[in-house]
């Protein structure tokens, strides 16, 4: 692909101290993710999936290596610029929805747009459109406590896409749902991501879901390798 990757990890290294021991989690991990590409990250627990996603999402910094997001070398950015890049270019979806309980479904999708400085009219149009896309047009005024598990996760995905990110990072996005709901929500996620042209890196233990993505990678001895 000639298009500039939306995410580029080059020889990323990350280790942690545990008492007298140093635990090397990532040892020269490299990955290019292009706009519109959906990549599954399938690896056993404890191999560094969450660390990799945190580094890709600018929540952690590598000790060595380069992280580029939307063409920006994040190692040269100030903390303020990294925060702005994370807000404007990266969407996150977690296993648990993390919706704000005191706000309605619509308000949960409006809030990140307000933080980004989007006008009320544009933010409402975007939030309403996303929630309708996920079949939640009749749930706009519902608090999370009144939504099913699948509905909550659909709102979380809509929230992640609200600011039109170029990169979506998801950690077991349907892992907390039953099989039927998981399949339906995941299909909606794929359709929405492809429709938005977002590059997505999705960690999952579900081999059937992984097989529906464009390619599958894993972590082996701290490096990213094709499956």
UniProtKB/TrEMBL annotation:
<keyword id="KW-0067">ATP-binding</keyword>
<feature type="domain" description="ABC transporter">
    <location>
        <begin position="7"/>
        <end position="227"/>
    </location>
</feature>
<dbReference type="InterPro" id="IPR003439">
    <property type="entry name" value="ABC_transporter-like_ATP-bd"/>
</dbReference>
<dbReference type="GO" id="GO:0005886">
    <property type="term" value="C:plasma membrane"/>
</dbReference>
<dbReference type="InterPro" id="IPR003593">
    <property type="entry name" value="AAA+_ATPase"/>
</dbReference>
<dbReference type="InterPro" id="IPR027417">
    <property type="entry name" value="P-loop_NTPase"/>
</dbReference>
<dbReference type="GO" id="GO:0005524">
    <property type="term" value="F:ATP binding"/>
</dbReference>
<dbReference type="GO" id="GO:0022857">
    <property type="term" value="F:transmembrane transporter activity"/>
</dbReference>
<keyword id="KW-0997">Cell inner membrane</keyword>
<keyword id="KW-0449">Lipoprotein</keyword>
<keyword id="KW-0547">Nucleotide-binding</keyword>
<keyword id="KW-0472">Membrane</keyword>
<keyword id="KW-1003">Cell membrane</keyword>
<comment type="similarity">
    <text>Belongs to the ABC transporter superfamily. Macrolide exporter (TC 3.A.1.122) family.</text>
</comment>
<dbReference type="InterPro" id="IPR015854">
    <property type="entry name" value="ABC_transpr_LolD-like"/>
</dbReference>
<dbReference type="Pfam" id="PF00005">
    <property type="entry name" value="ABC_tran"/>
</dbReference>
<protein>
    <submittedName>
        <fullName>Lipoprotein-releasing system ATP-binding protein LolD 1</fullName>
    </submittedName>
</protein>
<dbReference type="GO" id="GO:0016887">
    <property type="term" value="F:ATP hydrolysis activity"/>
</dbReference>
<keyword id="KW-0813">Transport</keyword>
<dbReference type="GO" id="GO:0089705">
    <property type="term" value="P:protein localization to outer membrane"/>
</dbReference>
<dbReference type="GO" id="GO:0098796">
    <property type="term" value="C:membrane protein complex"/>
</dbReference>
<dbReference type="InterPro" id="IPR017911">
    <property type="entry name" value="MacB-like_ATP-bd"/>
</dbReference>
<dbReference type="InterPro" id="IPR017871">
    <property type="entry name" value="ABC_transporter-like_CS"/>
</dbReference>
<dbReference type="GO" id="GO:0044874">
    <property type="term" value="P:lipoprotein localization to outer membrane"/>
</dbReference>
